């Protein structure tokens, strides 16, 4: 149960609404009242009969009219502010006065009230009584509580209606007779127009100390904050990010909580989704907000998405109910399942790619995305990794922790293993079993190099020259030549030399075996003749066992001779061929013996396969480059361990690269990550099946499917309400008829609609929008709702919201305590406002403390936020997540300081002389009319820290319009963002395209700047300034008589402490942000720069890489780091937001960027407008001219005209 002290406190807070109450304690006040008691009869008769009349017709004395006009201006200004900010109409004509003071009661109560309309007409006001009279509820309560007298209001109003006079004597007599001897009332006649409100009496009448579960929870012990919640499948009607979806989920789950609505962070769309979700679930929602604009924005947003009339405004009930019924009659079901299936399918396609990219490999514990980033990091270092070696897949897991491998490589380095590579010595990676074997093989190598090879080479060269053969290229060629020479020698020993000159084909066929194909094609006689002829080539006494084979050998020898001999000649045999052959065989044996000890894993050809030149060099290396054989045994043991660990290929590569010790870890990492990439892809290569075009198409498909589901979300809610409506019509036909009759009157209220058709309220009044101050008058006492949403809650109290709280079971409050506080309003106009005496906590802070809060932090203003850094730092602890616009990047300023440099000093030294200087006033008016002339499509708000200055600006605008009538249309346009001039203390929750802040204070006559800046220096000055700064959508212009350097640093208070920073904001330069850029993006940025684009990776932490050319700026985001907590944020909301902020949104994909960065760079450059493919440019010029080779380096001008002089030489010069 809520404690009794809470109820007492709340009751006192209600009584304090308006600070004072002129309906219970009326005091004559010409400053804020228009006294009609002595008004002119002609004008008064028009007013009494219900016609419009001008104030000048009522008050015709010039002096009295001047006072009345000033009062009317104040009354209208206060009425508009209270009406806009609290939903309360306050202009009334009160008549008659009952004074209770004779009986000791401090009460002076007006008797009757008439609502009055007050409309400005140039330098006058038009007045009209706008309704029937009503009895002051405070009078009814006072008579009952003070004297126990029950006032019959109908009787009193009947007495008033008997006469054409507004306060006939019969009214006073009726009250006197009613009081009789019980009360000593002092009754008198008055007629006064001023600001009055009956809400205090109405709230007190609605005040009920019976508690409810919600009020009990609200006054109970604070919770431990909000617990985590799973977000189910939601039926959203507008876009929502992850935080907004979580808020909707909490509301649907029945939780009570607060939502902190930081500026521009999707406040309205969140409320719309919450209301739609609750209504879709069959719950009735009460939405309360003090500001009419807030309620109208909610209603308009529902209308814009096809749900007009879902949220019924209490002050436009008939319009909204009719709109809702029309929608209910027309609503049709949509294929929600198919649309949702398409969205899920598109999500699955996106997830498949990103799962393949980001899923962790079960064996190695790394993802492809991480591998690519690691490899890019290694390649982007000042000294990048160079190895291309791989580690076997079966050894990769052992080296996830590479400390042991690195220790082994360091040991090999210390032994000199990487000092010599295969390019340095032929003994690289040589294999020996003992030192003796090393000595033995080394001796062979030296003998070959110093003796055998030179001799054999010389001898064979002599042979080839003698027979005119081509020079041998390899050792194999030597062997071929020697075998050919031996074969020819053997042939000439058995056959005559003429055998090489005769065709042998027929002889070979004739001597072929009996079953040979060649023999079968020849007749027997011819065969016998040819066989006889073949024997004639034999030398005398010679015999050949196989003539056919011998002839084929001769044919082959002749062909080889013709192939190798450079001139036509008969085959011959050089002398000394036997010795050469023996030497050659010994040479080959020695080569093969050495080959057995050379690197078995080398990819080089064997020694015998090398060219003669290469072999000579290799033998020289084998004979002389023997340092590599030092401590071979120790190195062999280490290499064996390296090979066992799978690092043999890496060790070979490190030796080839002569890797320094400090780079061993780098090269090891490179080898491991390269091997890991191949290993992971071999197990799951699905990511390789996605092209950049395919991934982009999947994202586009998801965006389209999501948009379709959002659109069908509103239709789903509409169809649900339609079904309820039609079911209600069938079950409550009598109520339907009663509702129909009510609506035919073209007037309706929430209470009347509820009374006429209570069974249909689920369809006609699913959500009600009303000011908390109007609930007692607008809603039945028995009205019950499932949920109450309190908007702009930082500016209202629990007491003010009790009528809403007691009618609901759940509360969700939305507010921002940086720009709003429950300061209430002051109903009476006074030269010096009294101000609220009771410090009260807002319901927003209370609910946040008791139930916990969500925070909307992501700004969705498409024009970014003027002075965003200052606002975020000073008022929101850098919690707002701003994304800068493309215009900001291009250097456009959203903040302008307009300094008044002339006549910026006060004329006198009296107090207040520095306030509202004429020069500042004139400059502000000039800016206002300049805006109306050149930017009429943009809304404008003008504010000042000086109320006097604001009043003077307002008056000067009115006067200026008399000579600029063509601009009058602007000052009545822009709807809820209509032009307004206001002191900053009276500014609440306003938004305008442009804001002019005219400070309103100048220099003293001596040029000094004082420390008092009016409302800016008040205790709430910081909140006033915050409210002003967040009001600007596009630009803020500050008009001031001094700059930041002139602001004193001491004796400042309130918002004035920020004034120096505010004025200095125009000179602030964007500071580059130091952040670690991804290596693949770093490489891409270098390529884009080479192509001619401007590239920036330090402009904003929210934008990883920016590329621009001319007026086109692009945000480049990699697919491995997309900001956002959900697919919707990543693939729809963020790209859409950046595009709407003027950016070209470019997504780059991991494998595409890793495998072909040049193609990606060219594609982006083309999108920026660079004609790269039409004007090919090498990305990296190899022949860039060094500076020392330029003309400038030699002292000549770079723009030499030598070429022109050569072209312009006279013709006779030749």
List keywords for this structure.
P-loop_NTPase, 1214 residues, single chain, 23 strands, 7-stranded antiparallel sheet, Rossmann fold, alpha/beta, disordered C terminus, 6 domains
* Helix content percent band: 40-55%
Q: So what's the CATH class of the largest domain? A: Alpha Beta
Gap from first CA to last CA:
115 Å
CATH superfamily of the largest domain: P-loop containing nucleotide triphosphate hydrolases
CATH topology category name of the largest domain: Rossmann fold
Mean pLDDT: 89
| Beta-strand share of residues | 5-15%
Q: What is the approximate shape?
A: elongated
Main sheet: strands, sense, barrel: 7 strands, antiparallel
Tally of distinct domains:
6
User: How many beta-strand elements?
Assistant: 23
Rg over C-alpha atoms, rounded to the nearest angstrom? 49 Å
Indicate the structural class.
Answer: alpha/beta
Number of helices: 46
CATH architecture of the largest domain: 3-Layer(aba) Sandwich
Region (Disordered): 1191-1214
InterPro entries: P-loop_NTPase
Biased composition (Basic and acidic residues): 1194-1214
């Amino acid at each position: 149960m809520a404690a009794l002290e809470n109820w007492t406190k709340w009751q006192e807070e209600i009584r304090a609404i308006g600070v004072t109450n002129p309906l219970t304690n009326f005091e004559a006040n010409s400053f804020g009242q228009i006294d009609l008691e002595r008004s002119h009869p002609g004008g008064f008769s028009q007013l009494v009969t219900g016609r419009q009349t001008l104030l000048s017709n009522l008050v015709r004395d010039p002096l009295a009219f001047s006072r009345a006009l000033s009062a009317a201006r104040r009354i209208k200004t206060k009425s508009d502010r209270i009406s806009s900010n609290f939903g309360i109409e306050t202009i009334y004509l009160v008549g008659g006065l009952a004074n209770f003071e004779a009986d000791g009661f401090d009460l002076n109560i007006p008797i009757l009230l008439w609502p009055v309309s007050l409309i400005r007409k140039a330098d006058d006001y038009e007045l009209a009584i706008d309704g029937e009279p009503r009895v002051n509820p405070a009078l009814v309560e006072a008579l009952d509580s003070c004297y126990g007298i029950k006032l019959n209001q109908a009787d009193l109003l009947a007495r008033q209606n008997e006469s054409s006079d507004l306060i006939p004597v019969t009214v006073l007599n009726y009250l006197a007779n009613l009081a009789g001897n019980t009360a000593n009332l002092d009754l008198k006649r008055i007629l006064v127009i001023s600001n009055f409100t009956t809400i205090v009496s109405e709230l007190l009448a609605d005040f009920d100390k019976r508690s409810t579960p919600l009020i009990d929870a609200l006054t109970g012990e604070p919770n431990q904050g909000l617990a985590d919640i799973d977000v189910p499948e939601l039926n959203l009607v507008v876009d929502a990010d992850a935080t907004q979806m979580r808020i909707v989920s909490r509301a649907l789950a029945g939780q009570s909580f607060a939502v902190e609505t930081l500026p521009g962070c999707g406040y309205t769309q969140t409320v719309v989704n919450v209301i739609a979700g609750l209504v879709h679930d069959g719950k009735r929602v009460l939405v309360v907000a003090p500001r009419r604009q807030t309620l109208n924005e909610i209603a308009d947003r529902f209308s814009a998405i096809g749900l007009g009339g879902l949220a019924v405004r209490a002050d436009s009930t008939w319009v909204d109910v009719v709109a809702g019924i029309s929608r209910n009659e027309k609503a049709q079901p949509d294929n929600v399942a198919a649309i949702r299936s398409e969205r899920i399918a598109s999500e699955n396609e996106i997830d498949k790619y990103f799962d393949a990219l980001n899923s962790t490999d079960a064996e190695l514990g790394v993802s492809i995305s991480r591998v690519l980033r690691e490899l890019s990091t290694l390649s982007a270092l000042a000294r990048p990794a160079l190895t291309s070696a791989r580690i076997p897949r079966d050894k990769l897991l052992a080296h996830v922790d590479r400390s042991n491998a690195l220790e082994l490589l360091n040991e090999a380095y210390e032994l000199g293993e990487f000092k010599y590579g295969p390019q340095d010595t032929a003994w690289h990676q040589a294999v020996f079993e003992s030192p003796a074997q090393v000595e033995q093989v080394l001796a062979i190598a030296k003998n070959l190099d110093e003796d055998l090879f030179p001799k054999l080479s010389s001898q064979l060269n002599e042979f080839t020259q003698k027979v005119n053969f081509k020079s041998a290229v390899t050792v194999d060629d030597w062997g071929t030549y020697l075998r050919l020479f031996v074969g020819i020698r053997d042939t000439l020993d058995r056959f005559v030399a003429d055998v090489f000159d005769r065709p042998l084909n027929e002889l070979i066929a004739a001597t072929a075996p009996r079953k040979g194909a060649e023999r079968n094609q020849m007749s027997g006689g011819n065969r016998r003749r040819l066989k006889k002829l073949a024997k004639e080539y034999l030398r005398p006494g010679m015999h050949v066992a196989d003539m056919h084979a011998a002839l084929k050998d001769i044919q082959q020898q002749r062909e080889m001779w013709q192939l190798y001999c450079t001139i036509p000649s008969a085959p011959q045999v050089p002398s000394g061929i036997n010795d050469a052959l023996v030497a050659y065989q010994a040479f080959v044996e020695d080569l093969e013996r050495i080959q057995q000890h050379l690197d078995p894993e080398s990819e080089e050809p064997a020694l015998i396969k090398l060219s003669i030149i290469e072999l000579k060099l290799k033998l020289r290396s084998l004979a002389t480059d023997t340092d590599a054989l030092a401590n071979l045994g120790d190195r062999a043991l280490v290499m064996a361990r390296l090979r066992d660990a799978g690092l043999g290929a890496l060790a070979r590569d490190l030796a080839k690269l002569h890797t320094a010790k400090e780079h061993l870890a780098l090269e090891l990492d490179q080898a491991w990550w390269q091997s890991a990439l191949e290993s992971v892809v071999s197990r799951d290569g699905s990511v390789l099946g996605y092209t950049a075009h395919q991934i982009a198409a999947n994202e586009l498909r998801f965006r389209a499917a999501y948009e379709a589901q959002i659109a069908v979300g509103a239709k789903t809610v509409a169809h649900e309400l339609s079904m309820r409506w039609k079911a209600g019509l069938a079950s409550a036909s009598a109520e339907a008829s009663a509702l129909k009759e009510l609506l035919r009157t073209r007037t309706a209220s929430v209470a009347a609609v509820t009374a006429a058709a209570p069974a249909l309220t689920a369809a006609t009044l699913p959500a009600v929008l009303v000011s908390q101050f109007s609930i007692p008058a607008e809603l039945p006492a028995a009205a019950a709702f499932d949920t109450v949403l309190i908007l702009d809650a930082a500016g209202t109290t629990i007491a003010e919201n009790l009528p809403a709280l007691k009618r609901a079971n759940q509360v969700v409050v939305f507010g921002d305590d940086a720009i709003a506080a429950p300061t209430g309003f002051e109903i009476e106009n006074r030269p010096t406002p009294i101000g609220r005496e009771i410090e009260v906590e807002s319901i927003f802070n209370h609910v946040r403390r008791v139930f916990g809060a969500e925070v909307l932090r992501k700004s969705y203003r498409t024009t970014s936020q003027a002075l965003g850094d200052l606002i975020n730092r000073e008022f929101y602890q850098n919690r707002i997540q701003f994304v800068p616009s493309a215009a900001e990047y291009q250097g456009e300023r959203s903040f302008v300081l307009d300094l008044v440099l002339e006549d910026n000093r006060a004329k006198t030294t009296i107090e207040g002389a520095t306030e509202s200087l004429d020069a500042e006033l004139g400059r502000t008016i000039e800016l206002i009319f300049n805006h109306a002339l050149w930017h009429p499509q943009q809304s404008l708000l003008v504010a000042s820290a000086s109320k006097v200055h604001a009043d003077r600006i307002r008056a000067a605008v009115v006067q200026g319009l008399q000579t600029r009538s063509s601009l009058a249309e602007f000052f009545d346009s822009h709807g809820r963002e209509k032009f307004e001039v206001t002191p900053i203390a009276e500014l609440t929750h306003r938004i305008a395209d442009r804001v002019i802040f005219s400070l309103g204070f100048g220099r003293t006559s001596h040029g000094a700047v004082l420390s008092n800046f009016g409302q800016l220096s008040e205790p709430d000055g910081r909140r006033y300034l915050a409210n002003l700064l967040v009001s600007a959508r596009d630009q803020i212009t500050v008009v001031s008589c001094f700059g930041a350097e002139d602001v004193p640093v001491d004796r400042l208070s309130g918002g004035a402490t920020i004034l120096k920073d505010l004025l200095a904001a125009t000179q602030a330069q964007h500071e580059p942000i130091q952040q670690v850029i991804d290596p693949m993006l770093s490489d891409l940025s270098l390529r884009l720069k080479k192509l001619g684009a401007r590239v920036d990776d330090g402009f904003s932490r929210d934008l990883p890489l920016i590329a621009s050319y001319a007026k086109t700026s692009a945000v480049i985001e990699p697919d491995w780091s997309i900001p956002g907590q959900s697919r919707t944020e990543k693939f729809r909301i963020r790209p859409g937001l950046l595009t709407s902020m003027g950016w070209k949104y470019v997504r780059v994909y991991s494998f595409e960027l890793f495998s072909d960065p040049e193609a990606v760079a060219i594609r982006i450059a083309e999108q920026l407008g660079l004609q790269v493919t039409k004007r090919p440019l090498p990305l990296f010029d190899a022949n860039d001219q060094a500076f020392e080779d330029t003309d400038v380096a030699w002292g000549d001008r770079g723009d030499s005209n030598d070429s022109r002089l050569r072209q312009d030489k006279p013709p006779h010069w030749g």
